């Protein structure tokens, strides 16, 4: 049966949707310099990484997460698993930022899980056996997801519903993201990494639908700080087995939880952006709008070093060297970059003067 979520838009949910729209419009009117934007985006990635892995039991503090990400692990030998989770989630967030300008696919979801679970940018197959969710203290089974034989069909239905809903625009993007989060967690298509992947899918949908706020907010922080509420909302009527009505359950309570968190996050980020905006910085908002997502992402690399190579660009964007070379040819033609070192062995590239003011 195709995914057909059951929910009601209550007064509280409607008010939060208005707050989300208001926050989005206010944020878009705030001029943000590229250097500040890069810093805010990195802070948000670190916060999302810390809180999303913390939900799953990761023991690293925010300061430790920063150190682990900057050094790519190898900092706390006694916490190698925690380090791996942090490094992998951060990689997945970086990958998401370069891919969210296209419709969601199962391959993208599987790749996000691959990054979360193994740190490799390769699609992972869905589970082939039964899994279950147990109470952390008693060990009792609290939820039995659908059988493995049903997972593939359920995931196809979910992705189809997401893309169709985003395309026709009849359902608010925030609600699509929330319901997708719920349904992915309900299907639980993997033995491990489902929660982290569900939260990444939520981010992907919000970015693709125009509610990414340039990647500088973290819904994961809201979940982690309201963790029991998160679990209670996902439990939905405490249905212990998928086949006992989980798909037909009333999701209004989960929507209420999710919308409240998103409204709070959007309101906070608007205030934070106003406070952090340096008054002497030049407003380059109009100039930034001329750039593609990949070009704006490349600015982060130019912030670190004046000249870049094709290999460095490929690593930064998470694409193949061939794709990076094609991108560079296009950017040279568009005069986004210039050749720095013309040597075939050590060829490097500079930002065109027009764009230097952005960094």
Please explain how this structure is put together.
- With 359 residues, this protein is mainly alpha-helical.
- The chain has two domains: 266 residues, Orthogonal Bundle (Fic-like fold), CATH 1.10.3290.10; 67 residues, Arc Repressor Mutant, subunit A.
- 60% of the residues lie in helices and 3% in strands.
- It is built from 16 helices and four strands.
- The strands form two sheets. The chain has a two-stranded antiparallel ribbon. The chain has a two-stranded antiparallel sheet with strand order 3-4.
- A hairpin with a 6-residue loop joins strand 1 and strand 2.
- The radius of gyration is 21 Å and the shape is globular.
- About 2% of the residues have low confidence.
Write the layout of secondary structure elements.
Blueprint: H1 11-28, H2 34-55, H3 62-71, H4 80-99, H5 106-118, E1 133-134, E2 141-143, H6 148-168, H7 173-187, H8 194-208, H9 219-225, H10 227-235, H11 252-276, H12 285-289, H13 293-304, H14 310-317, H15 321-333, E3 337-339, E4 349-351, H16 353-356
Antiparallel strand pairs: 1-2, 3-4
Helix pairs in contact: 1-11, 2-3, 2-4, 2-9, 4-5, 4-8, 5-8, 6-7, 7-8, 7-11, 10-11, 13-14, 14-15
């Amino acid at each position: 049966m195709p995914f057909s979520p059951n929910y009601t838009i209550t007064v509280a949910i409607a008010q939060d949707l208005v707050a989300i729209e208001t926050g989005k419009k206010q944020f878009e009117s705030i001029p943000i310099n590229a250097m500040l934007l890069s810093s805010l985006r990195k802070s948000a990635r670190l916060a999302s990484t810390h809180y999303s892995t913390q939900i799953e039991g990761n023991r690293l503090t925010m300061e430790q997460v920063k150190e682990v990400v900057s050094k790519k692990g190898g900092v706390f030998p006694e916490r190698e698993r925690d380090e791996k989770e942090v490094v992998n989630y951060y990689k997945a967030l970086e990958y998401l930022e370069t891919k969210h300008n296209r419709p969601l696919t199962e391959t993208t979801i599987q790749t996000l899980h691959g990054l979360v679970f193994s740190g490799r940018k390769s699609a992972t197959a869905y589970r082939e056996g039964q899994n279950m969710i147990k109470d952390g203290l008693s060990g009792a089974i609290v939820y039995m997801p659908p059988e493995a034989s049903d997972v593939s069909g359920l995931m196809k239905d979910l992705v189809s519903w997401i893309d169709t809903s985003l395309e026709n625009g009849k359902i608010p993007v925030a609600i699509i993201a929330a319901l997708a989060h719920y349904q992915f967690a309900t299907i639980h298509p993997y033995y491990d990494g489902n929660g982290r992947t569900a939260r990444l899918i939520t981010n992907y949908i919000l970015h693709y639908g125009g509610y990414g706020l340039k990647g500088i907010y973290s819904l994961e922080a809201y979940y982690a700080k309201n963790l029991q509420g998160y679990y209670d909302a996902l439990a939905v009527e405490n249905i212990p087995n998928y086949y006992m009505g989980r798909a037909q359950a009333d999701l209004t309570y989960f929507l209420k939880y999710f919308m409240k968190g998103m409204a709070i996050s959007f309101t906070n980020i608007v205030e934070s952006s106003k406070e952090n905006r340096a008054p002497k910085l030049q407003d380059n908002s109009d100039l930034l709008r001329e750039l593609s997502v990949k070009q704006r992402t490349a600015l982060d690399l130019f912030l670190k070093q004046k000249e870049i190579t094709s290999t460095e660009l490929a690593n930064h964007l998470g694409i193949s060297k061939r794709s990076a070379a094609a991108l560079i040819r296009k950017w040279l033609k568009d005069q986004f970059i210039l050749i720095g070192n013309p040597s075939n062995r050590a060829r490097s590239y500079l930002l065109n003067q027009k764009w230097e003011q952005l960094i």
